[in-house]
Design a protein that fits this description.
Two copies of one chain form a homodimer.
Chain A (H helix, E strand, L loop, with lengths): L4 H9 L14 H13 L4 E8 L6 H4 L2 H13 L4 H9 L11 H9 L5 E6 L11 E8 H4 L2 H18 L4 H22 L7 E3 L8 H15 L3 E4 L2 H7 L10 H10 L4 H18 L6 E2 L6 H7 L9 E4 L4 H14 L8 E4 L5 H11 L4 E6 L1 H4 L18 E8 L2 E2 L14 H11 L12
Parallel strand pairs in A: 4-5, 4-9, 6-7, 7-8, 8-9
Antiparallel strand pairs in A: 1-3, 1-10, 2-3, 10-11
Pathway (chains A, B): Cofactor biosynthesis; NAD(+) biosynthesis; nicotinate D-ribonucleotide from nicotinate: step 1/1
EC number (chains A, B): 6.3.4.21
GO molecular function (chains A, B): glycosyltransferase activity; nicotinate phosphoribosyltransferase activity
Chain lengths: 443, 443
């Protein structure tokens, strides 16, 4: 009886189960940054690269080149759909309509295209490279930037699929029961926390698209107003949620690289130039700064007055208690009321961190959490045979050069420092050397 | 696209989702006992009744009379299917073929019918009855006996369904994720226990038929030879498993009632008369005695010599460590080697009990566990809103009279004693009064 013959035949014969189903399946900040780049840096050429910071996992052994290429090509073949563009044009983001200019949307529809890329398996005796994938992008910044989230989500989910393919139907069932139980136990800890504010930031390192969607729906159904929305634009669109996110390190990194041909003063000033340009395009809640690219303390110390008028700060590599205290003190020193400002933590958070941070900052500053990989990919200990193949990786995709000039990131956590050694040395001289070997990078 | 229109329409319109899908959906021992009754007591009239020993739960408020009647009528309309009868006739049970006589199978096919029943809601100020259901059966013993498992499974699953109907789709998903995680955590504790032997005994108080089937498949897939089979005949048939079980209290209870019109000696002797009759029909591994109906110690003390030749004992109300030690000592006192005998514990066991009992008796007697309600209905703490509506009840269905004479059960646990006060007094005089207020009856 009830056999769906069409579905069975389809399941047996499909050629590709796409990982990225729509160009909106990306973090919202990528779209904001894309418009920013399209407007301010339309001719800049960049390279960027996927890096697996979890070097003990040999990605190339888990993710097949052919499958990776197939998924990448699928994304390259996607176009923004008419209905998606109409939504971007007419929807209210952060309380504001018409954030995207008509000319930009027209360009998105007609001229946007993803850059070329290079895929290879790394052969090396260096344990940081052995068995790793090379996945490198080069071209116009406007054509490269969007790859970041698509590529990370593809690599992450291909790794997931390879691990799932080893499991029987019953084992799969155990796996998901455990992961769901884990997720719901987490949600129960958040359910009754007064005034809590959190969003999903877990697109790039998710277990899978469907699992992220499940997690987002679970949060929406359970947390009410405590759930602010999702960074995933496709999920925001599909489920009428707030799209969350503003900007990322690639802006100050590229602008610093471009400025680095000049004097040390020009290099140092570039980090504030980002803010100036950003506030020409965006206002209000979108004025969230990310001061840790070259060290938060020096950033705040020398920041121009207008930076204190921004809406808030995102903390992504410093101990968030320290960073929040520092921001509160800085705002007070500049005569601003921290209780009117926002502090967003987004670095490897899990539920207990979120609750503790919320309590710590309660009444002092408006705290909110960007809950990432440990929301959308916490399968630790869930594998039915006790294997670690479904544990999340610390995967990133970073700009490596702009107009041929290598980029550098110092970060507040020395484990996240990136760039050629000699350039890192110069940046440290210019910006100071405050990065400390901080917490181990889990995700 | 892939919408199964037929299935959707069916789901919206079905009249009855049957709980008992086949007459084989019962404990195997009921079929063995049915043949025993058909052969030895074809004219005896009995009454039996469902009792909820978890009196704090007002069953009548959870289980609707109309739905109950509908499910009962559905079972009454069922017939043994030809293929089921062929299987009963030709299959090997406990290593023996042709356990069921052709004449019995012919009777099953042509003349078997379930008795009439009475359903009512109890109105009473007595907390043991207030809000409880009356579900009472009367007629020929051959027509009443099979109701036990069907009725218990129906009441149990109707209660489940009522609780599930309160939950959203997402809450249902949480619930089952938690219950599956619980089940798999239990299985992991059993997986590597050397020489373990256990079977599913959880039909009557299961969460639902499908959940029992899931649990049985999980055990089969994970435990290999450690999983001996299931008491559920339909599942044994469907999944090619061993059907497990031999006999229950209703035999000595009915035979004692029938003997109780005579002398105390005749009453006392009736408990051994069951064994005599049983071994006329069955042999080998089916010779498992259940000595606790009127107290295990007196039973063993006065047991005829042939009882020591039986294959083993099932412990259902006494502390299983004590009962096992007692049985081992008794076997030795009768010159039998306990290591050739089987000890089956089946009273409210959970995974830790099973492992500990297995270790305790290892090398001394062949221990095996009948894992019941805490295998097939352990949803404690799984309810997404923290309610207790899905926790299992201590539901039983017991013979209350035979040929108009009330039945009595003393048991080794005074909480399980049943029968009219004045008759219990006589039985205690005859059999002794060894029942102690034992462990609280969970399930």
């Amino acid at each position: 009886m009830n056999v769906n013959f069409a579905e069975r035949a389809h399941n047996h014969n499909w050629k590709l189960d796409p990982i990225v189903r729509s160009l909106l399946d990306t973090d919202f900040y990528k779209l904001l940054m894309l418009q920013f780049i399209w407007k301010n840096f339309p001719q800049v050429q960049v390279t960027s690269e996927v890096v697996n910071r979890t070097v003990r996992v040999h990605l190339a052994e888990r993710v097949g080149m052919a499958a990776l290429r197939e998924q990448m090509e699928h994304v390259r073949g996607l176009r923004f759909r008419r209905s998606e563009l109409v939504w971007l044009a007419g929807n209210t983001f952060y309380g504001v309509r018409f954030i995207f200019e008509p000319a930009f949307l027209e360009w998105l529809e007609k001229d946007f295209a993803l850059s070329d890329y290079e895929i290879a398996e790394q052969e090396s005796d260096d344990p940081a490279h052995a068995g790793q994938l090379t996945l490198r992008f080069s071209g116009l910044w406007t054509a490269v930037t969007m790859w970041e989230v698509y590529a990370l989500a593809i690599v992450s989910e291909l790794k997931t699929r390879a691990a799932l393919a080893e499991l029987s139907e019953l084992e799969l069932d155990v796996l998901y029961a455990r992961a769901k139980t884990r997720l719901w136990d987490k949600i129960e800890k958040l359910r009754d926390v007064e005034g809590l504010q959190l969003s999903d930031f877990g697109t790039r390192r998710r277990h899978s698209f469907l699992w992220q969607e499940y997690a987002v729906q679970a949060l929406r159904a359970s947390l009410g107003k405590r759930f602010g929305g999702t960074s995933n634009t496709a999920l925001a669109y599909k489920h009428d949620l707030e799209a969350i996110g503003t900007n990322a390190h690639e802006l100050p990194m590229a602008m610093a690289a471009l400025a680095s041909v000049g004097s040390d003063d020009e290099l140092r000033a570039s980090q504030y130039r980002v803010l100036e340009l950003w506030q020409r395009s965006y206002g209000g809640s979108l004025l969230i700064m990310l001061p840790d690219t070259f060290g938060t303390t020096q950033f705040l110390e020398h920041a121009p007055e207008f930076a204190a008028d921004w809406t808030g700060q995102r903390v992504d590599s410093k101990d968030p208690y320290v960073a929040g205290d520092e921001y509160v003190a800085w705002l007070e020193s500049r005569g601003r009321d921290p209780r009117q400002k926002r502090l967003i933590a987004s670095d490897g958070l899990d539920v207990d961190d979120i609750v503790k941070l919320h309590e710590y900052f309660s009444g002092r500053i408006r705290f909110s959490a960007g809950w990432g990989t440990l929301l959308t990919n916490d399968f630790r200990g869930c594998h039915p045979r006790g294997e670690d193949t479904l544990e999340p990786l610390s995967l990133v995709c970073k700009l490596t050069s702009a107009n041929g000039i290598p980029t550098v990131k110092l970060s507040d956590n020395a484990r996240k420092t990136a760039g050629p050694v000699e350039l890192v040395a110069r940046y440290r001289r210019v910006f100071g050397s405050e990065a400390e070997t901080g917490a181990a990078v889990i995700v």
